[in-house]
Structures are given as C-alpha cells and as structure tokens.
Amino acid sequence: MELGSGGPAPGPGQAALGRGGLEFLQHTVGSLLSSYGWYILLAAVAIYLLVQKISQSLAARPSSQPGAADAAVEPDMVVRRQEALAAARLRMQEELNAQAERYKEKQRQLEEEKRRQKIAMWESMQEGKSYKGNLKLNQQEVESGASTSSAVPKSKPNKKPLRGGGYNPLSGEGGGTCSWRPGRRGPSAGG
Questions:
Q1: Burial of 117 (0-12, 13-18, 19+ CB in 10 A)
Q2: DSSP at 153
Q3: E strand or H helix at 107
Q4: Considering the entire predicted model, what is its pTM?
Q5: What are the φ and ψ backbone dihedral angles of 159, each rounded to 5 degrees?
Q6: Tens digits of per-residue pLDDT, 155-184?
Q7: Which of 60, 110, 124, 172 could form a disulfide with 134 if both were Cys (CB 3.0 to 4.6 A apart)?
C-alpha cells in the first residue's frame, strides 16, 4: 500500500486548480503587503516590544506564594506598622489641637483688648474728650511701659525737602528731559 495513493490520482485539472489557487494566494498576499506592509511591520515590532516588556516585568516580580516563615512574620510587621501609623496620627492630632487652642486664646485676648479700647473711647466721648487723643495716650503708656531703659526723648535731625519749594510737576518747568510734547496734527506721514 502506498502512502500518497489514498484517493484517486490527481488529474491535470486538479494540478491546474492548485497552481491557480497558489497564484491567487500569492497575488492577494502581495497586494495586501504592498498596500499595508509598513503598517503590518510596525504592528509586528510593537507587539514584539510589548511581549518583551511584559515578560521582563513578570520575571522581575517576586513569586506570589511566600514561604511559611514569611507568612508568620508578615502579620506581625503589618500590625506594628499600623500601630506606629496610629501613634503618629494621634501625635499629629494632639499638636494640631494644641495649636488651635493657642490660636483661640490669642483671638480672645485680641478681642478683649479691642473691647477695652472701645469702652475707653466711649467713656472719653461721654466726657467730651477727643477719643483719638485718648488712643494716642494709651499707646504711649503701653510703649513707655515696654521701654523703660531710655527716658530721654530723641531729637529728630532737621531734614531738608527732597525738591525745592517751587517745584510743580504740572507746570512743565524744571523737568529737564522729561517733558511731554503733543504729537503733530494732521494726517499721518505716508506716501
């Protein structure tokens, strides 16, 4: 029994059909490559690089099944980390509460000081005095209480004015090179 003779012998029509099918396949593949060849090549290179990248990342990842010793140590580490994190959060919250309390105390003191000033101003107005002068006196008392080291008032040196008394920037005089002149009247210069 022969291996290739399982059926009827190929005739001249079947050989021509196989050759025609081969030519048709060759023509189809050739036209496909001529139309989309560069796209197919770029897609093949991109797929190759993607497969390489994925295989490297899978090789670099540690095995997903840790040993029995690692499984016993890991929950303890997780618990310790969580406790440390909770302690740090508690400490930060306590700091924040202390800062808020200090801020509220400062605000209360400022409001109390403003309230006292308003009362003093109201009383001075009721007595018929100027409240602005009273405010200045209060400020001087505060400053004198703060600085007790120098009781001698300092004299101010005589300052000369920056410009002469006759200078007026609107007059157009004495400005030197910074004078403004109006533009020419008439149509713009052009051909």
A1: middle
A2: P
A3: helix 68-127
A4: 0.31
A5: -105, 135
A6: 667 777 676 667 676 776 655 666 677 777
A7: 124
